[in-house]
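hey m, so remember when u said the tokens were messed up on ur end? i reran from scratch. heres the input so u can diff it against urs
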Amino acid sequence: MAALDLLGRRWTLRVIWELHQHTAPIGFRDLQRRCDDMSSSVLSTRLTELREAGIAAPTTDATWQLTPLGQDLVTAMGPLLEWSRVWAERRK
């Protein structure tokens, strides 16, 4: 339930998705822009929560990346992504 609580928070999945889309770590401002300019306080909170959960981590140059656990999470969400593609097609 703790994982579902974390993942269900507003913007959390979007932050994870954007971190996953980059092979290299991404800076705070670039991540904020990619998340439709969400407020800096919300992004900071989400990144802190993801860091504490072991899903994302800051690098030495103040950028962010998914941890191996975060990459495993994205892999585990693969079936949900496939389901969402089917769902989107059926809604057309």
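this time it looks ok to me. Strands lie at 26-27, 56-58, 63-66. if urs says something different then somethings off w ur setup not the seq
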